[in-house]
Specification:
The complex is a heterodimer of chains A (178) and B (184). Chain A has 178 residues and is mainly β. In chain A, 10% of the residues lie in helices and 46% in strands. Chain B has helices at 17-28, 32-35, and strands spanning 37-47, 50-55, 57-61, 65-67, 81-84, 92-102, 109-117, 130-132, 141-149, 158-166, 172-183. Chain B is rod-shaped, with a radius of gyration of 23 Å. Classes of the chains: A mainly beta (178), B mainly beta (184).
Amino acid sequence: MAWTAPMTAVDNTIWTSSQWNTHVRDNLLETMAGKATTAGRWFVSTGANAIAERVITQASTTTSQTTTSTSFTDLATVGPSVTVTTGTKAIVFWGCQLSNDTANAQSRMSVAVSSATTIAASTNYQIQQDGVAANSSWRMNTFWVPTLTAGSNVFTAKYAVSAGTGTFSNRFILVIAL
Amino acid sequence: MVWSAPMTAVDNSAMTAPLYNAQIRDNLRMSAPFLASGAGQIFVTTGPNALAARTVHYHEVATSQTTTSSSYTDLSTVGPTVTVGAIYGQQAMVFTTCELDQNTTDMQASAAVEVSGASSYPAVDTRCAMTRDGMTSGNPIQMMAAYLYDPLSRDGEITFTMKYRTGGSGTATFAKRRILVLAL
């Protein structure tokens, strides 16, 4: 059903069941209470006079793993990754503990989007450790608001180095769907 | 329109047009679907039994630019910056991130947020700020800051702008700059 602008009643006119169904029943079903399905979610608009329930979700992987890839790639345990129904935007937070066995070499963590939207991981939105002694471990975080195709989108953490072997642990990704 | 506490119906009493308009029409006009004016808005309270739709404000400036200023200042491309309408809840969550670097080893590069308009908070190291320090020059790192600004005025527009400085010498470089504001 869809929202209909609530009618203005006029004294001495007949109130029909059709009017009740359109202006009261169907409109109440379009409210947050009418649409709420699960605890812990919030509501966003999807257009004029339209709302949707959205999730806030997080995934994490504590396992410490490595890569020597100079292009963004998966680690032995892929991710972390979340699958979320979104509109055309989402707020994405991510971070991890990262280090490199080579002094002054970079270790990087970015996010790729797939399914309804395809966006490759990129140095344009990443965390990066650089210019420190070998095996210096830092905890870093960042965020990004990508433009998406509305629908089911998958957000997956990806990793790379500029040189040496990068080590990544305590990795998380948090997505607030809009 | 204003919310009215829903009446309790009594058998054999008339449902008049004014009753319908106040109880059903006007109360529905205080619901999220009526208030939603476009996609991507969130809903916050503005007082007892009152809601408003809020836009999620986001702006990014990818350009890498520099400053030698030791006090917070703009870069050649100002910002990123967002302007928010009257904030009835008098609070805003602000998140910033950028890549920071310095051409002088062990010299600082810092970024913070200036609030202007109906409310004023200068950019300082203790609010929504990040500092890169004690590192070899030419090694950029991406950092993030978060802060809840409270109180903010509800009497007009408020602008949030990222600002930048060095630690007193050298040239600081900033890139991949992003700001996200959730006004309550």
